[in-house]
Amino acid sequence: MRRWHVFNLFWIVLVASCVTVNVYFPAGAVQKAADQIVDDVQGKGQKPATKPEAPSSFLERIKTFGIGPREAYAAEINVEVSTPAIRALRAQMKETFQALKPFYERGAVGETNLGLVDIRDTGSLSLKEKADVKRLVDQKNKERMSLYNEIVTANKFGPEGLPQVQKIFANSWRSKAPAGWWVQGDNGAWEKKK
Q1: Which residue of 62, 133, 168, 170 has the lowest C-beta tally within 10 Å?
Q2: Cα dihedral 11→12→15→21 (10° resolution)
């Protein structure tokens, strides 16, 4: 009988000692970074430079020198999207986007639910345009996958973070696509944005 208790105690301790560790994935911070990158690549979101306002009160003026009471802020997770490799990819992506834009507008390509570009309908394109669109789509997808991998690496998300980053970017590319462009829903069905 005593053996049975020791055996059960062993299993109870073993099961109790198993700990599940949940690693927090900062989806909100990645979404914010994705929206900024998509706006940058598509040429949106360039705000004119504004002149900073002068501090009005004496207390605000001395705060500019680091003297006096300061406001406390909660720590915000900052996703790293400004490495040299990411900056170079963003510049390349802007150029490729401009070359691919007419094909989006003609319905030849669309945004997938995996954060990539897919060829949709090349029926109205010439042979040269078909070759151009294939080359541009391949280049665009290579740039996007490199960007997603760089973001995962720079932020140490691990390989399991890649599908999450890709999905978040897919949401940004699709939501920021103009009306009339083709986007693929999460279910795989294609629809023209209204």
Answers
A1: 62
A2: -150
